[in-house]
């Protein structure tokens, strides 16, 4: 983002506190930015976007660790209405994705709507006035409708390990990477080997003196079909946009096939052979290979891709600990195997709050209770977008809406639904739209029944898809085609509504 754009966003933040906005959007990652664009496109201009940081970016602003990149090809990991012919790789890296987001914000003229450094600390529904009161650190905003677009991957999870705060060396989470700390020649421990560690570990392994990996559960890892896109491909995408559209369609079909396979564990076992080949191709030591072989069906946890992970695993400066961490001391780390290993730095690759979105603790509905208090550890919504007891509130990436594909499929499907709701509210003079609790309960019973025999539920692993109560409150059990169909139109008959009282 240019300095001028930042200043423009900052200056808007000094607006009137008492103004009643039609819509407030929380967050300016891809979901929030998409909401802003679609609101303007629908002729809704009385809205603002509240952003906690001083620039746009969401998850791609927060995560800057070495090797940070998308695991969905760029042609599909982008807005369908804003294709980028200039992607440098099949799988774009963090800086390029963030730059794309900021350019789209500029191109679509939404920067003036964004209030920078305005973190939403509390959002409460006012039953008397039928509006939302949104508090930041220095202002209170009011709005008829709120779109909560905070995303699921920006609040790091810190493990509860004895002595974590007693460590005298350097310790940080992968999402809060210490670029000022030189890892060269250091003894480094990495706790957790999920999607982030798969990317940053191969980048730091050549630099460090010793790398100790604590990996209780090995992951299935597919080869990543990544490569640089030559200038001729970029020219082709620019001058013949249909070629990039065709590529997007082909990639979508592959991911949709994978998503469909998740409903058939036996099918995924066949797909698992590719991951086994990827492992056997590099790791020749039978003992290490056996320990790196997962004991669950592929797809039960997030499917990972890397061409560099296994080559890094066999290097002489890498020590594998297939156990958890028992304790952290001032200058060492003790595994559940009882061995104490001296380290200079600890990197936490322990992921994010997925099944328990942090925003739920800050949103209070008609009863005054927070969304998290109502959910009691098991998020529930209707169509993954509205939640009973939270009128006029829309939740991006809501309960049971995640898919094994591009997040943009979810974003665009939800925004079609939300914008249609807002247009109908204006058309019919509605001051309140609320989920029917009975209908929400019926919907969730159907969702949970459809999830029962999927690899996510029956694959034999513990994953972040499953909440603290053992319920899959994260994933959409059907195809993205079905998702787009169900979210293509907002059906007022499925909601409880209140019309504006006129004299």
What attributes does this structure have?
eight-stranded mixed beta sheet; five-stranded parallel beta sheet; alpha/beta; 32% helix; disordered N terminus; FAD/NAD(P)-binding domain
Structure characterization notes:
InterPro entries: FAD-bind_Monooxygenase_sf, FAD/NAD-bd_sf. It comes from Agitococcus lubricus. This is Cation diffusion facilitator CzcD-associated flavoprotein CzcO. The chain crosses the membrane at residues 20-37. Keywords: Membrane, Transmembrane, Transmembrane helix. Helix 2 (30-41) packs parallel to helix 12, helix 6 packs across helix 7 and helix 12 packs parallel to helix 15. The model is unreliable at 1-16 (pLDDT under 50). It is globular, with a radius of gyration of 23 Å. A hairpin with a 4-residue loop joins strand 5 and strand 6 (140-148). Strands 1, 2, 3, 4, 5, 6, 17 and 18 form an eight-stranded mixed sheet that branches. A five-stranded parallel sheet has the order 7-16-8-9-12, with no helix packed on it. Strands 13-14-15 form a three-stranded antiparallel sheet, with no helix packed on it. The protein folds into two domains: 3-155 and 355-499, FAD/NAD(P)-binding domain (3-Layer(bba) Sandwich); 164-220 and 265-348, 3-Layer(bba) Sandwich (FAD/NAD(P)-binding domain), CATH 3.50.50. It starts with a helix and ends with a strand. The protein is built from 15 helices and 20 strands. It has helices spanning 3-12, 30-41, 59-62, 94-107, 195-204, 231-239, 241-261, 265-282, 286-291, 309-313, 371-375, 407-428, 437-451, 455-458, 480-486, and strands at residues 20-26, 47-50, 114-115, 122-126, 131-135, 140-148, 170-173, 187-191, 210-214, 221-222, 304-305, 318-321, 325-328, 332-335, 340-342, 345-348, 363-364, 393-395, 430-435, 495-499. It is α/β, with parallel strands linked by helices and 503 residues long. Helices cover 32% and strands 17% of the residues.
